[in-house]
């Protein structure tokens, strides 16, 4: 798939999607938003912070548990992926060539395996600061990024330091065949932070939205479509025009999708082919489109510093 030249890499665009419920998925990066927008959201008195016994990432009953983030391959050769249907939050980021990778956050549920696992990017470390000191599973980083990893508030778990946590699969060709075992990985990071309030709010939808059945978002060389299913009570996910599935959980869907508008700019890094690695600016404030319960709502992003909470003020609730 060929890359499309981005004329203005610093222009704010619909960047990513965040799905919350049995899965939360957030797409971050420069992409084109296609679909009917909703009105501007206003805070609702019914939206509330997570209460005791309510998991802060989902709103469902669950006890606090350690956080494991996993960097996941999203190239066509890596699909279908394994384990991402059990994630609490999934960020989708733009990478080299206008393609995408995922950063999946696990805490309330741990699947047996997750993958394919790939290398981390500079943008990941700003995203992960809101989670305290999580564990991070990734296949590696380029040498110039190692100092950033070492300085980040997290527990890095690449195969070089946690070989027992990884296995090679047979479903996909290398390098798209590395999988992490979350329980083993977290045992190697015994002090990883538990899930805590990152700014999600649960309750009735705020006023100002409008009915919506479908929403599409594009990166230069990747496309995502979300179609509301009344039967599944989820936004069903399609990637590059094909329904997204997992090897262990069937069709991929989420109860809430957040399209975040961010700035994507060139970083000082590049891949082995010389393609510049994009950097997604996720610290600050901006706008988002929240899709929940067949409704689209325009929602401001809550300003957040590097040590702050989640960038999206989420008014939705996760259905049981």
UniProtKB/TrEMBL annotation:
InterPro entries hit by this protein: DUF3048_C, DUF3048_N, YerB-like_sf
Gene3D superfamilies in alphabetical order: YerB-like
Residue ranges the record marks as coiled coil: none
Entry superkingdom: Bacteria
UniProt-annotated stretches for the region Disordered: 301-320
Positions of the DUF3048 domain: 58-186, 217-293
Listed Basic residues bias regions: 308-320
Protein name per Swiss-Prot or TrEMBL: Putative secreted protein
Lineage, highest ranks first: Bacteria, Bacillati, Actinomycetota, Actinomycetes, Kitasatosporales
């Amino acid at each position: 798939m060929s890359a499309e030249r981005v004329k203005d890499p610093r222009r704010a665009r619909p960047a990513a999607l965040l799905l919350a419920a049995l899965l939360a998925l957030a797409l971050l990066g420069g992409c084109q938003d296609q679909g009917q927008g909703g009105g501007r959201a206003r805070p609702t008195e019914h939206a509330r912070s997570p209460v005791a016994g309510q998991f802060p990432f989902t709103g469902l009953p669950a006890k606090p548990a350690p956080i494991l983030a996993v960097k996941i391959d999203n190239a066509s050769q890596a699909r279908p992926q394994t384990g991402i249907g059990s994630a609490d939050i999934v960020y989708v980021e733009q990478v080299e060539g206008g393609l995408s990778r995922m950063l999946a956050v696990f805490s309330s549920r741990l699947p047996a395996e997750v993958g394919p696992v790939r290398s981390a990017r500079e943008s990941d470390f700003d995203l992960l600061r809101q989670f305290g000191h999580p564990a991070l599973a990734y296949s590696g980083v380029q040498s110039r990024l190692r100092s950033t990893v070492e300085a980040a508030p997290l527990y890095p778990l690449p195969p070089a330091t946690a070989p027992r946590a990884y296995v090679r699969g047979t479903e996909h060709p290398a390098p798209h065949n590395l999988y992490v075992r979350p329980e083993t990985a977290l045992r190697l990071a015994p002090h990883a932070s538990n899930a805590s309030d990152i700014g999600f709010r649960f309750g009735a939808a705020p006023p100002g939205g409008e009915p919506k059945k479908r929403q599409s978002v594009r990166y230069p060389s990747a496309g995502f479509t979300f179609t509301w299913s009344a039967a599944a009570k989820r936004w069903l996910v399609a990637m590059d025009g094909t329904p997204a599935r997992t090897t262990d959980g069937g069709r991929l869907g989420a109860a809430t999708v957040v399209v975040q508008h961010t700035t994507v700019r060139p970083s000082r890094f590049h891949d082995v082919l010389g393609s510049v690695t994009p950097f997604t600016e996720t610290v600050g404030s901006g706008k988002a489109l929240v899709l929940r319960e067949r409704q689209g709502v325009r929602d401001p992003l809550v300003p957040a510093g590097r040590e702050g909470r989640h960038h999206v003020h989420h008014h939705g609730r996760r259905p049981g």
